[in-house]
């Protein structure tokens, strides 16, 4: 990470940012997101934000495809980790900032259904 996360939090607070939207594109190209307040950024970078593994099996109509062993249940957790050095303040919504995110397993290891990680050839935390 290029900047210290605490410095980023302070900078965002000074700019009046009240939420950081962390986004990822699911396997259908649909943008999904979670938003955290700036004070939650250090925790999000360290431990991620909880996301159901079901997002890996949503179809293009937001229905769940149950034919994938281990993924057809809301039980379990993957973590959405913001790319904190890529945070940008949104000019059209000045109270918000945006960052791309990657999905990792609950233990922080690569999650095989993370589109960003797959395209990058796998990437460890």
Q: Report on the biggest sheet.
A: 6 strands, mixed
Radius of gyration: 15 Å
Number of helices: 3
Integer average pLDDT: 86
Which percent range fits the helix content? 10-25%
Order of helices and strands: HEEHEEEEH
Global morphology: elongated
Q: Roughly what fraction of the amino acids lie in strands?
A: 25-35%
How many E strands? 6
- Note the quaternary state here: single chain
Enumerate the spans where pLDDT stays under 50 for 5 or more consecutive residues.
Answer: none
Report how far apart the termini are: 11 Å
Structural class: alpha+beta
Notable characteristics:
125 residues, alpha+beta, 6-stranded mixed sheet, 6 strands, 26% strand
Structural overview:
- The structure is a single chain.
- The chain has 125 residues and is α+β, with helices and mostly antiparallel strands.
- Helices cover 18% and strands 26% of the residues.
- The protein is built from 3 helices and 6 strands, in the order αββαββββα.
